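Protocol step 4 of 6: structure prediction from sequence.
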Amino acid sequence: MDVVDLLTGLFDANGFAVEACAGPEAARARIDAGGVDAVMVGWPSDASAVLYRWVARDHRELRRRFVFVVEQLPAELREQALRRHAVPLDDLVTLLAVAAEVTRAARPRMLLVDDDPDQLGAMALFLEEAGFEISTAGSGKEATAMLARAAYDVILSDWQMPDGSGRDLHDWIARARPALLHRLVFITGGDVEAARAHADDVVVVPKGQDSQHLLEHLARACAAAPPPPE
């Protein structure tokens, strides 16, 4: 039995959902698709080093959930122990404990979009306290640029914005990233029915509605998101 089979069997038996990727390219594609709580790689390995550098640059939220499985703890990992997990392969108890720790640290990634900085800041604080990991965009135009290069579990956007409106954002997603429509929720202080008439395939919530109601919509959007492709 090789190491991948051993670890897959170990984690499967202890209730973790495990996917094995054959090389850094497959791992990058899977991480970009979203829904990855933690990454485990073997060390020493040039491919593992390449993957870690890419994660540190493009998926910073996973840096503290990136685990090196090693035969012996090398100095270059020991020196960065505060930033990275490195676990001996023969210490299965610690491997399971670290996997549980980093998985608990995972939070749904949200892209929050609003042209009002005060509203954006207040919403970001509220949603972080509700358990989301927040990235912000100040316009629909900025949001599309972020969506083109990163993956999110849910998108919450204002509808009325001058530099790329909610309508523009919806239409771009429908055209360029249609799988994300399941993850999209709009809020508006304007004409709710007009927004719903245009974006009839997503949820539109009136501003000022009960915050618990909004959180329920966001939870459903996360749960309704289709699984990433195999």
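Step 5 (inspection) to follow. The chain has a mean pLDDT of 83.
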